[in-house]
Design a protein that fits this description.
cell membrane; 279 residues; MetI-like_sf; membrane; mainly alpha
């Protein structure tokens, strides 16, 4: 049955308005990043009178953007690797084995997502300071401390998501692997993990994006040497002026890794997010 003409036109109009709404901020960022500071500071003009790529060169000199970029890459990469590795083992144990406290563990993991992250800020700060005073291990102001902080809210979601995905993998594959002589770890790495690649990729993308753009914990748990991009962008705002064109240029530059990774892994991401929904 063909859709009514009114529905088709309504859909086109709605999708057009939605596209304009989504792309409008991107256009403002791109156009502002290509304007001199004098033009950006004045009334916004939809059509720039003059274009320049100078802000894309100045962003590396106004603030140590390269250092912030490296800090974010190390922290986000380490948080992603740790989150995926721990989540794979934890989700496999919950999905394939029955043990005392299994239901309590899954409920606890899921319930941690109901609390806002700011509730963990002060306790983690005090824990890191006390550990540093007692043992000399400097977690506060270090990349390692920031990675552990990000695991507190990325790891529970990763475990919960992979549990649902592993449940969708037939248990017959485990039995076939055991018949071939594989133990539990052999079945996990040779059978389950290859079959669960879309779900693992989705978890990795989530963990990386969460750590890459996080601001609250990074602004408190870092110092001048470990500052990440999300916090370092504030350096373009001084007491005398705000370099709006450089802020827009830097925002576009730091968004490229996430956008590129999402485009490359989009096929796995969509599959991983929906695979465990229906059994």
């Amino acid at each position: 049955m063909a859709a009514p003409r009114s529905f088709l036109w309504s859909r086109r109009i709605f999708l057009t308005l939605l596209t304009v709404f989504v792309l409008l901020p991107v256009y403002v960022m791109v156009s502002s990043s290509l304007k001199p500071l004098e033009d950006v500071s004045e009334k916004f003009a939809w059509i720039p009178s003059g274009l320049t790529v100078r802000p894309y060169f100045d962003i590396w000199e106004t603030v140590p953007l390269a250092d912030y970029f490296m800090n974010s890459l190390i922290v986000a990469g380490a948080a992603t690797v740790c989150s995926v590795t721990i989540a794979v083992f934890a989700a496999y144990a919950v999905s394939r084995y029955s043990f005392r406290g299994r239901r309590v563990f899954t409920v606890t993991v899921l319930s941690t997502q109901m609390f806002p992250g700011i509730l963990f800020l002060l306790p983690l700060f005090l824990i890191y300071v006390n550990i540093g005073n007692a043992t000399g291990i400097a977690l506060f102001g270090s990349r390692a401390g920031l990675v552990l902080t990000y695991l507190t809210f990325s790891l529970p979601f990763s475990i919960w998501m992979l549990i649902g995905y592993f449940d969708s993998v037939p248990r017959d594959l485990d039995e076939a692997a055991k018949v071939d002589g594989c133990g539990p770890l052999g079945a996990l790495f040779r059978v389950i993990v290859p079959a669960a690649v879309p779900g693992i990729v989705a978890v990795a993308v989530y963990a990386f994006m969460t750590a890459w753009g996080e601001v609250l914990f990074a602004s408190v748990m870092t110092d001048d040497t470990t500052r990440t991009l999300a916090v370092g962008l504030q350096g373009y705002s001084t007491q005398n002026d705000v370099y709006w064109n450089q802020i827009m240029a830097a925002s576009l530059v730091v968004s490229l890794p996430v956008v590129a990774g999402f485009l490359l892994l989009q096929r796995y991401l969509v599959t991983g997010l929906t695979a465990g929904a229906v059994k």
